[in-house]
User: Fold this.
Amino acid sequence: MQAISTLIVDDERLARNRIRRLLCLDPELDIVAECGNGEEAIEVMKQRKPRLLFLDVQMPGMTGFEVLQQLPPDDMPVTIFVTAYDEYALRAFEAHAFDYLLKPFDRKRFQDVVKRAKSQITLIRHGDINSRLVQLLEGIEKGRADSSRIAIRTGGHVILVKAPSIDWVEAADNYVCLHCGTETHVVRETMNAFEKRLDSSRFLRIHRSTIVNLDRIREMRPWFRGDYQVVLQDGTQLTLSRSYRDRLKHVLLKAF
Assistant:
């Protein structure tokens, strides 16, 4: 039997190393490459056309979903999602027959997933995989829009945060900080990706590193060089940059 060409895509080096070590125990799998970002992964897949893909969902710049959307249907590999996603997404993976590895995963879970992937490779046509992928993406996006809770993995467990309880969101490199009253929760996700999880009628980006809950705004004050200060009900002062001012004007104020 010809070895199954396999690609690993994850922005975390330690995660790639763990997957590689476990894959090396299986002689039926051939690791053709490892990638640390989505752009690199797309190029490798176009050239090498792997049959099996281990794909991190949450990566800076380009998510795993966005990577797959760039591939033609005939080149779609059997995909195992590697994720720390919320419980709704996990149910979506299962409902559409896509396997996933929830970080952190153990060897038994890994071996079970690989065994099923091998069976899929011999039985599933590319077109069927692509059709189920489209349904999966649509289901997850719909679930995000309908959900008023946000799942946060921290310290080995999941915390469910009610979206309306979030006062404001702050970007910190590849993380976002959710400020909820006296509590702050840290999520490993880019600001752009997290913004899509929020209700746009309730939350608004006012700076490239700040999202605010519109219900928390108490007043606005002119600041320097066309910027404004946004003052929240608890006294927190945030900067509204000029590039986002018109958006807030349209949503919140009719005359600004």
Summary: The domain at 150-252 is CATH 2.40.50.1020 (OB fold (Dihydrolipoamide Acetyltransferase, E2P)).
